[in-house]
Amino acid sequence: MAMDAGEIERMICEGIPGAKVTITDLRGDGDHYAALVVSEAFEGLPRVRQHQMVYEALKGKMGDDLHALALQTSVPKD
């Protein structure tokens, strides 16, 4: 069962409070998404840990309900 963009955004925002999340459906099939996640919580963390935080927020949905996620993370720019 595919996830919709709103559900992905909601889960990430719940798992990383204050994050700004932009989700794009890459193929229009509800199965291949790109996510841009900007959060102060990423400050000082290596990119790998930032991505782990997003995957943790998705609570095991990655690879099951969510087939593919092209992920970009960053801290807010002043």
UniProtKB/TrEMBL annotation:
It comes from Sneathiella chinensis. InterPro entries: BolA, BolA-like_sf, BolA/IbaG_stress_morph_reg. This is ATP-binding protein. It comes from the Bacteria. PANTHER family: BOLA TRANSCRIPTION REGULATOR (PTHR46229), BOLA-LIKE PROTEIN 1 (PTHR46229:SF2). It holds the Pfam family BolA. Belongs to the BolA/IbaG family. GO terms for molecular function: ATP binding. Keywords: ATP-binding, Nucleotide-binding.
